[in-house]
Design goal:
heterodimer, A: 297 residues, mainly alpha, globular, B: 282 residues
Chain lengths: 297, 282
């Protein structure tokens, strides 16, 4: 799902040397911003409930001004989530039905996994073990595709169970009573998984690895330098150059103010996110290790 | 007028424990303030007869005299045998309700295995029951015997919120099971029986239906026998977590190590060839 600049004026202005590659449209970055806001609200108001026995959970709740605030904020975060899901599907529908964009659901520009992704996984593991050349990644790397579908699955599981827990009396008109106890279990574990996955795995893959450390600014500015593009997405560069389409991807750099604000906010969120994930991991292991020991003894 | 009356009334209630409470107890407390005062019981055990005056005066009964509850004390005290305290003198409704409960039946058979009034309310430090602190404490009290029910309650939304210290609008054990007339769920008269569960839920959940009331509040995710659905849900979720992290934790660690090795190699290369240019690529 490549985002191509649609007018030459937009694409070609500015001196050639400073032009950057546009990776994410303003609309896509706006949706990701909503995801970030909703995710942090939901994580910091919901996780303390699951880990209610722990002092850190009580500290987070008191920092938020008590359980009543957390309860309303959590529902606000849920509404925000449903809004961005709607906006996402609206864009896909617009691009598929009205603009008749090709390659939305298949091909190298699509987020849908392909055979190449399996090969890339194998090549990546070989690179981990013996070094040498990294796989030639195209528009979306396999870890980005996994992130996307993990997020989609998480939204589905948490959205459905969250609604059941929000309106238990309404949903048990249709569903049996155990839908409530099932939802409690699924919602809590899936939320812990989602938070730890985003802050440990997604943050490393996207921001903390060597080339991007400490933060990949593409999610704020939407842009990537030519050098970075060639290093990170060699297969896409090759493909674009073969089509003589590089010009259409190039834009002038983003405003430095935007980058500065994005970097500051991003780093604060990174520390907060890693902090709560460390708490979740610690508490989960502290709960589970005695259970496992009891089981085997 | 009204405000004046209120002021007088509140001043009086504030002063009552100081006047009434302070006047009489010294007679009793001249002995019972002694921390070592004991009574020998059968079987070589002893019972402390010490009363902490400060606690008593701060309790809801602080304005009452000792003999209001400890009736039957004669001039021969301490060699007389004062009878058991009867809470029913004042709280007849609660005592009557309690007498119908399963706790009363078990208590009659063996007092060591079931609670009476004192087990939950205490003796000389009885507090108001509608404070956050008392409500939270009752959970631990019920949990002393009903350990599994306390644990499974804490797995529910109700329990988690209560455990975070928020008891407003949140049900504790006795909101559903009733405080005094507790009956087993198998008894149709019980608040939590199949027949009456819905009425109990409706107390807070105004739009509850029959299916809603079939939700097993005390389902146990660790017991495949008691709650198979919750057990398997829990297990599947744990497996999903193991799957996700089983794939990605090694991936991330390997990537981190490879990055570190590449970084070191790059530094070594740039360090050995041009010694004049250092610190450029960090």
């Amino acid at each position: 799902m490549s985002e191509v600049a649609h007018t030459p004026a937009q694409a070609g202005s500015g001196p050639v040397e400073t032009r950057e590659i546009l990776r994410l449209s303003g609309y896509q970055r706006f949706i990701h911003l909503l995801v970030v806001i909703a995710f942090f609200i939901l994580a910091f108001t919901g996780i303390p409930l699951k880990f209610h026995e722990w002092a850190w959970a009580k500290m987070i709740l008191s920092a938020l001004g008590g359980y009543e605030n957390a309860r309303y904020l959590h529902r606000f975060g849920a509404i925000l989530t449903f809004i961005y899901i709607g906006l996402y599907f609206a864009e896909i529908a617009y691009r598929f039905v009205i603009k008749r964009e090709k390659g939305l659901f298949w091909g190298p520009d699509s987020i849908i996994p392909r055979v190449e992704d399996v090969i890339h996984v194998a090549q990546m593991v070989i690179w981990f073990c013996i070094g040498g050349r990294r796989p030639k990644i195209d528009r979306w790397a396999y870890w980005e595709k996994f992130d996307f579908f993990a997020e989609a699955w998480g939204n589905f599981a948490l959205g459905v169970t969250g609604l059941i827990l929000w309106f238990p009396a309404f949903f048990t008109r249709l569903l049996p009573g155990f839908a409530i106890s099932m939802s409690t279990i699924i919602h809590g574990i899936e939320a812990s998984l989602a938070v730890c996955f985003i802050f440990f795995i997604h943050f490393f893959n996207a921001h903390l690895r060597r080339e991007k450390f400490p933060m990949d600014m593409v999610i704020v500015t939407g842009r990537m330098s030519m050098h970075e593009f060639a290093e990170d997405r060699p297969a896409e560069l090759e493909r674009v150059q073969k089509d003589n389409a590089l010009f259409w991807h190039q834009v002038p750099p983003a405003s430095p103010v935007l980058a500065k604000v994005g970097r500051t906010v991003g780093l604060i969120l990174l520390v907060l996110g890693l902090g709560i994930s460390v708490c979740i991991t610690y508490s989960s292991f502290a709960e589970w290790i005695p259970r496992v020991i009891r089981f085997f003894s | 007028m009204k405000i004046q009356g209120l002021l007088y009334a509140s001043a009086l209630t504030l002063l009552l424990p100081l006047t009434l409470g302070a006047q009489e107890p010294p007679n009793c407390l001249s002995c019972h303030a002694d921390k070592d005062l004991k009574k020998d019981l059968a079987g070589g055990k002893t019972q402390s007869l010490f009363v902490e005056q400060k606690d008593y005066l701060q309790s809801v009964h602080g304005s009452l005299s000792c003999t209001s509850c400890h009736t039957g004390i004669t001039d021969a005290h301490p060699s007389d045998q004062p009878g058991k305290v009867d809470c029913g003198i004042c709280h007849s409704q609660e005592v009557e309700a309690y007498k119908k409960s399963i706790h009363a039946q078990v208590f009659e058979a063996d007092p060591a295995t079931a609670p009476d009034c004192l087990s939950c309310h205490g003796t000389h430090q009885i507090q108001k029951v509608n404070t956050d602190k008392y409500k939270r404490a009752t959970l631990d009290q019920c949990g002393q015997c009903h350990e599994d029910y306390k644990r499974t309650y804490l797995d529910t939304y109700h329990g988690k919120v209560v455990d975070l210290g928020e008891t407003k609008d949140m049900p504790l054990c006795w909101d559903c099971h009733s405080a005094h007339e507790i009956l087993p769920a198998s008894d149709p008269q019980s608040n939590v029986s199949k027949e009456r569960a819905l009425a109990t839920c409706l107390y807070c959940h105004k739009d509850a239906t029959t299916k809603f009331a079939q939700y097993d509040v005390h389902s146990d995710r660790f017991s495949v026998k008691k709650s198979p659905i919750e057990f398997w849900t829990y297990l599947v979720m744990i497996l999903i977590v193991c799957f996700a992290f089983g794939l990605w934790v090694p991936h991330t660690i390997l990537w981190f190590v490879r990055d570190w090795l590449e970084n070191r190699k790059k530094k070594k290369d740039s360090g050995s060839n041009p010694p004049s240019e250092t610190g450029g690529g960090a």
